[in-house]
Design a protein that fits this description.
Layout: H1 2-7, H2 22-27, H3 31-46, H4 52-65
């Protein structure tokens, strides 16, 4: 039971000093990847032809799939 329970939780990684959000502060351990992530997110959020409601549903589905429960 203990092993199964531990797998339900994401590992804890200390935040870096780089980034504006908790997610970015984790990625901020590698500023080059953070920069690429910001460009991707800008394209998806600000330059997409998809409806904002659909984009939010995709975000939630991906977060759930990655084990994020927020």
């Amino acid at each position: 039971f203990l092993l199964i329970r531990q797998e339900l939780f994401m590992p804890r990684i200390a935040f870096s000093a780089v980034g504006d959000t908790p997610n970015q502060r984790i990625i901020g351990h590698n500023p080059e990847i953070l920069d690429a992530f910001r460009h991707i997110m800008d394209a998806v959020v600000n330059k997409s032809s998809l409806d904002s409601g659909l984009l939010e549903q995709v975000r939630r589905t991906l977060a759930w799939g990655f084990g994020c429960r927020y």
